[in-house]
Amino acid sequence: MTDIARTHLDPRFAIGDIDRRIFGGFVEHLGRHIYDGIYEPGHPSADADGFRTDVIELVQELGVTTIRYPGGNFVSGYRWEDGVGPVSERPRRLDLAWHSTETNEVGLHEFSSWLEKIGSDLMLAVNLGTRGTQEALDLLEYANLPVQTALTDQRVANGRAEPFGVQMWCLGNEMDGFWQLGHRNAEDYGKLASRTAKAMRMLDPELQLVVCGSSSRAMPTFGSWERTVLEHTFADVDFISCHAYYQEHDGKAQEFLASAVDMSRFIDSVVATADHVAAMRDSTKRMMISFDEWNIWYLHLPEGVEAPAPQLDDWPLASRLLEEKYHVLDAVVFGDLLITLLQHADRVRSASLAQLVNVIAPIMTEPGGGAWRQTTFFPFSITSRLAGRHAVRLAIESPTFTSERFGEVGTINGVATVDDDGTSVFLVNRSLSDPQVLEIDVTALGSGLSVRESHLIADDDIYAANTLEDPERVAPRPAEATIADGVLRVTMPAVSWVALRLG
Ligand code: AHR
Prior knowledge:
503 residues
């Protein structure tokens, strides 16, 4: 059955300005992300620096802005000095986080040159797991300082006269997680993060600093972690991080389609906690959120299946880790997560899709072979390209379904963006069974409006995916959307994501 859902699109229902850093990505030294992913010197498409140009083109098309690097769990055991200087002299190290060998062929200089080719900005994470304030200061001095010191002399000798000018810095990674090297309680981490942030600002007062929030809303310390950490760091940092990964559990696709409700509640709770800390200090400062890891990830193995135990004599290099194959259902949930980030654009000022190439990634590659777009590539590239400067709320009246975790959930979710160049609308139909028609009153946008572009992600087989053999099995096609008498009418199949550009 097709129900009619309704809403108004009125720029006066403003959420806030969209910070382009919301379309950020994340690159970790993990599996085949760097080696045999973005960097493959022997590949036919490799440039003089060993970077695959077919991958560069796809990352550019994806439209990622700021890229967080080099981890992730990896950063909590990383010695940044290993990755600078002559490549032939760089040490091979064991990466405890992913039980791998790190050759350090790619480090700060190489990664920055890759980013320059892409046209994206670097966001660096420092190691607060096995290291501390001094090493963070050393990296900052090496990377950002324009004056002459022993460390900046090294940078110049290593081929980089101009500072890297990195603006955003993460104070460690997921320090609330028991799996993290150097995991600490909130009290200890909060004190370390505060000390480190104060010291870093003495070197460079213009930095934007991100303190670690919870690794997921399901962490047992969620809420109290944020409160305690912010009580220590409130004056020292600009952002607190959120991380969230979603997956379909036990074949419950309808439940999976409600995942964005979790992300929305996660953001609301962190905002409430941060504003509570502000209130306790009588402060008008508003802590922003860096949602610097989000994606679909089939992290939890089915019951009875266990991950193989790591072997002491086997520390592979660039092995196939976390190589998810994404299907249409994943892409629809993924598009809904992006909608949710935009719905919170007033407080989510930075976000990083985790990750980019081969590792839980929208882009896949084969060593010596092709590169292709996964289904999740499309909602990201289209949203990044079409989103305007200001986010606008859509209060949608639609049928609901009952979620085990979240109660009554609206079937249609959406957000709009506006600026002088036009209006964009992003929508999702979360119903597993029912197509939906949505009527949007657009009279507030004036007359003479037309649909300039439309994109639909949907398929009769919601588990259809792109592969090396069939890289274009799933692609966006035009959506059914018309405007008449001030009403934009959009027809959405069950399990679908739609983007429209009006002008
Ligand atoms: O993105 C994969 C891993 O997920 C990251 O290394 C870590 O921060 C998170 O747990």
